[in-house]
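Re-run with default settings, no changes from the original entry. Doing this only to confirm the output is reproducible before filing.
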Amino acid sequence: MVQCELLYFVNGSYDYHPLSAIKSTLAEFYRDDEILMGKQVLAQSVDGIDGVQQFCKNRIGVNKVKASIDDIMNIFKVVDESCCRDNLPTFCAAKKDRVPILTDDLSDIAAIRLELTQLRQQLNSLTKQLSTSNQCKCTNPNAKVSDPVASSVISRADVNNTSTDMMACSDSAISLVTSHPVDDSSNMADHCVTDEANTTRKENKQTFVSTLKQNIEKFQQVSYKKKKKSPVVGHSAAESQPFKGVYKKSVVCINRLHPETTETMVSDFLSSHGVNVLSCFRYENTDNRYVLMRVCVPQPHASKLYNADIWPLGVVVRPWKFKSHDVTQEDGAAQTN
């Protein structure tokens, strides 16, 4: 068990409230030192979980508190997506007044009942008005309905009047708003428009066919440019050839080596596996926990370096990333942090 009121609050509300609400509560309720201390405790608790190292850095600047809150929520997100929540310690709170409470209106059953009651009352009132309009229409068939929307949804409202389900009530209310009037004259007009449209399509189709037959001989086939073939790179190492080629070089970063590892050890190791090492430089990490090597090899030999079976456990091999400015020790060290 680890005492931290901030992490106790975040862990308890992460599954039940939006992340934006949790972040705003952390920024308004807790002091800056509590936020920074909470992040430090959380970083120590998730040591060894992949994907959280980038959020465990110490933030600086005027926005370090906001950035620390984002890091805390991102760490919880990564841990939750990795199904590692059970690996976290049990966070507890010793001071109850240092744990905020998030109120949620949707969780109050009384508020839900009130909303449902008001919705039913509105639906019943609207249904009565529609029923009155329907009776007037039946009494005087020649009279026009003043509310075209009501005339199109009377049957739907009468059916939903007997339903006590909240979703059915909401569906009826949406239907009352989005329905359109139905009139015999409008239907006749729609049929006329449809017939005219079909006739126009047939005429256009006949015109297109006749034009195509008349001008079929004038069409020309489009010729596409051929794609360029990729160059062929020689890989023969026979010594009997009369000339030699100049091969490209590949620079590879071999990271997370033991601090006692030297350039000679790495060069001899690669030579024993058939790799011709052109150059090898050693760089130390900022905290001296491990070192890295910048190795330059012929491009045909670079594929042998990416064989995971030849490397000890924990060693990371990747292409060397050059920056736009000078390639110095900071160039390689910045990629390993």
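Residues 107-178 form one domain. Confidence is low (pLDDT under 50) at residues 143-170, 172-193, 326-337.
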